[in-house]
Amino acid sequence: MSRAPDVDYSATSARPGWDTLPAALQESLADALGTRITAVSTPVTSGFTGGFAARAELADGRHVFIKAAPEGQHAYQAYQREAEVVPQLPPIIQAPAIITTAAGGQWFAVVSEWVEGRMPGAPWTVGDFELVTAACERTAAAMRPSPLGELDPFAVLVEDDVVVPARILAGELEMPSGLQAWVPGILPELSELLQLVPEALVGDTATHSDLRPDNLLIDGKGVCWTLDWNWLTLGPRWVDWVGLLPGAQYQGIDTFAALARSPLTAGVPDDHLDCLIAAIAAYMMKNLHAPPPPGCTPALREHQRLSAWTFLDWLAVRRRWHTVDV
Questions:
Q1: Where in the chain is the domain with CATH 3.30.200.20?
Q2: Which pLDDT belongs to residue 321?
Q3: CATH class of 18-114
Q4: CA distances from 232 to 98, 202, 209, 325 (A)
Q5: How far apart are CA 193 and CA 209, in angstroms?
Q6: What angle (nearest 5°) sits at the alpha carbon of residue 18, between those of residues 14 and 22?
Q7: pLDDT along the chain (326 residues), means of 10
Q8: Cβ contacts of residue 306 below 8 Å, gap of 6+?
Q9: Where in the chain do CATH 3.90.1200.10 domains reside?
Q10: Does CATH place domain 118-318 in 3.40.50.300?
């Protein structure tokens, strides 16, 4: 099987240092924490934004994780939303607790507990896949019904992506380069599959909706933590877990066997599962050659290309595209 260019997810961001943050924000953080910030580590290098994110040591001995972004960046709203969502999550969900928030110098910061851990999926192992799968099952059970009340439907999140293959076929969008040579030939079926979105992607479970390996941590005790809760929608309970499968399959995990035995997908029509993967693939194909949004790094587009490739490969097996070399 041909391969897409790999992405080093431990080195995808370009974040400012602590010393570059506005003094007003630093002072506001100290006030909110009720103690001095005595040391701040080098910012983390995962993620795709230019927002600040680093571990900090406090005068009272605590270690916390600080994320901050200026107005105008996507991360500014994302951090605010995360601060709203995490305190409302059921206790069974392992998410770093929000300690406080602060604002200053037209920046917003959210402070959470520090979790020492590693990212799964670099590459995926059977053990890590099982830990993440179990966490997804617990989360799905705890998030139905939604503990956060009304949320936008997941189908709304992808409504602009449904038409991407059809628009490429019509010449309204450019066919992205750097994908498998056979992709143009399957665009009609991809477009047809996406017509199922209003039926396939509805549900009554609050879903993370952006679950990727770099939004997960596995600590030294084997506990799987889920991060970055700013894209919550209402959808099928299987959405988050199934969205992880193409990347894991690409790295050697037998996700087709896992899918057949999973209680999350029991009784779910195959076309519904494939519709989700098609929707994400279409999203990843969109804007692939455009500059990244303000505050995001070029690695975002590299991630999109790799994701589109792996999701389309996964579909190629599922849809029996026999002319495809997978």
A1: 18-114
A2: 86
A3: alpha beta
A4: 17, 14, 6, 36
A5: 20
A6: 105
A7: 80 94 98 98 93 97 97 94 98 97 98 97 95 98 95 95 96 94 96 97 97 96 97 98 97 96 97 98 94 89 95 96 57
A8: 4, 5, 6, 7
A9: 118-318
A10: no
